[in-house]
Write a sequence for this structure.
């Protein structure tokens, strides 16, 4: 049986799913894999094009009729949120446009959460792929934008300026971990099949964690940056116990986010 799977090329996703994609022992499933940025994956799931996928957590209320939220394989944690950066200084300009890494991303929702609390007006927004946001900031094409993934570790090196750590703001206001991403599977799948998929994801994660070097050649080839230390830092930050089991604290964080998504 072949399932379609969609994940990003970011080190935390490839770390978790590498062994599953390569083929687990005694697993009856094979995987037709799409690698794409998270906004593209969100759009594919909105159209019902993938059987299993890692997507932005905030999109789930829009897809819950068609997809289960899995109990593992996601990205939830502390100190790992998106960053609002500027190419000029550390002062936010509410009269200027802010570029976000996709309309349906959790990063976009966390920015709106921050903006509504701090300014209470409608922000001026534009959208671009996450790597284009970062490159636009580096080149000075964009004044301010929200960055995610590996770019959390490179902004100082590239002489950008921090306006707000949006994840830290979320933690301060909600007391919850940051629910960035979730894995989902088609709701038409039986409970038994969903549990089998969850167990396969956990096994794949366990295999990755047992490696001496977390960065395999597969991870390095897919990553959008060629610095192995950044890849290691990325995996260490975004892969944690929530990745193995969302748990009670993770569920509360997701419920808080999903409630917020209906009102921002």
């Amino acid at each position: 049986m072949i399932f379609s799977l969609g994940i990003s090329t970011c080190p935390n996703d490839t770390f978790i799913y590498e062994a599953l994609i390569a083929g687990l022992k005694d697993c009856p499933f094979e995987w037709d894999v799409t690698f794409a940025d998270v906004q593209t994956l969100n759009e594919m799931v909105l159209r019902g094009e993938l059987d299993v996928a890692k997507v932005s957590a905030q999109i789930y209320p829009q897809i819950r009729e068609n997809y289960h939220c899995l109990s593992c394989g996601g990205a939830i944690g502390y100190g790992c949120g998106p960053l609002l950066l500027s190419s000029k200084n550390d002062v936010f300009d509410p009269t200027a446009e802010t570029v976000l890494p996709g309309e349906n991303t959790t990063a976009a929702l966390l920015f709106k959460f921050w903006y509504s609390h701090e300014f209470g007006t409608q922000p001026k927004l534009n959208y671009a792929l996450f790597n284009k946001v970062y490159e636009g900031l580096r080149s000075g094409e964009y004044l301010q934008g929200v960055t995610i993934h590996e770019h959390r570790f490179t902004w100082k090196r590239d002489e950008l300026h921090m306006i707000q750590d949006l994840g830290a703001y979320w933690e301060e206001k909600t007391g919850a971990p940051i629910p960035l991403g979730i894995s989902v599977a088609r709701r038409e799948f039986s409970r038994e099949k969903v549990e089998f998929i969850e167990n396969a994801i956990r096994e794949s994660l366990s295999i990755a964690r047992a490696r001496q070097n977390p960065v395999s050649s597969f991870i390095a080839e897919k990553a959008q940056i060629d610095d192995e230390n950044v890849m290691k830092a990325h995996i260490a930050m975004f892969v944690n116990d929530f990745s193995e089991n969302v748990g009670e604290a993770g569920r509360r964080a997701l419920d808080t986010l999903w409630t917020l998504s209906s009102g921002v």
DSSP finds eleven helices and eleven strands in the chain. The chain has a mean pLDDT of 94. The radius of gyration is 18 Å. The first strand starts at residue 2 and ends at 7.
